[in-house]
């Protein structure tokens, strides 16, 4: 009966932003109750068989980046929505790859000394290969400002809805509190 009223769609709550969402009703859709993308915040909500959030994906541990699917942008040219120029992207990939390859296995005799020097190594890489140029830093700052404004408007709207809901509901006052003592 209930599935007939909701159109057979499952209601789920995002683990990250706590917004309720109804999943598509088609079983052929990629989204399921245990693995779906939140339309509000864009995060992937994936849960294992025990209902625990899956927060590690094989892609996170890939040592080589995926091949680019599109033609690389010309020097200084940015793709739509890109915050970083090709030079900054190359530097970021290079630093990530070098940091990923820096530490040996834990049973390696050099592990402790390398681990102790890891922060200094990361700083030296970032000096050698700057992660963000001045032009990109301006774009990043603008994008962060836009996102902060969006989050502020969203939170303000949410607070307004909560306030309106609280005012529209009758106050719950216990009868014993209304009585006056004689």
TrEMBL record:
One matching Pfam family is Ima1_N
Question: Where do the segments described as Disordered lie?
Answer: 161-182
Q: Which residues form the Ima1 N-terminal domain?
A: 12-140
**An individual GO BP term:** nuclear inner membrane organization
Q: Which UniProt keywords apply?
A: Membrane, Nucleus, Transmembrane, Transmembrane helix
Q: Where in the cell is it found?
A: Nucleus inner membrane
Q: How does it sit in the membrane?
A: Multi-pass membrane protein
Which InterPro entries does the record match to this protein? Ima1, Ima1_N
Q: Which GO terms describe its cellular component?
A: chromosome, centromeric core domain; microtubule organizing center attachment site; mitotic spindle pole body; nuclear inner membrane
Q: What is this protein called?
A: Ima1 N-terminal domain-containing protein
| Higher taxonomy | Eukaryota, Fungi, Fungi incertae sedis, Zoopagomycota, Kickxellomycotina
């Amino acid at each position: 009966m209930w599935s007939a009223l909701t159109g057979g769609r499952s209601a789920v709550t995002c683990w990250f932003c706590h917004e309720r969402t109804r999943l598509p009703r088609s079983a052929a859709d990629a989204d399921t109750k245990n693995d779906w993308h939140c339309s509000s915040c864009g995060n992937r909500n994936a849960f294992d068989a025990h209902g625990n959030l899956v927060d590690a994906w094989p892609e996170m541990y890939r040592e080589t980046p995926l091949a680019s699917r599109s033609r690389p942008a010309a020097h200084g040219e940015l793709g739509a929505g890109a915050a970083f120029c090709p030079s900054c992207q190359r530097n970021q990939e290079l630093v990530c790859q070098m940091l990923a390859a820096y530490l040996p296995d834990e049973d390696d005799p050099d592990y402790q000394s390398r681990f102790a020097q890891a922060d200094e190594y990361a700083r030296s890489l970032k000096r050698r290969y700057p992660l963000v140029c001045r032009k990109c830093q301006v774009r990043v700052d603008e994008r962060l400002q836009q996102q902060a404004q969006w989050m502020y408007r969203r939170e303000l709207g949410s607070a307004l809805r909560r306030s309106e809901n609280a005012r529209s509901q009758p106050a719950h006052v216990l009868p014993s509190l209304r009585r006056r003592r004689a």
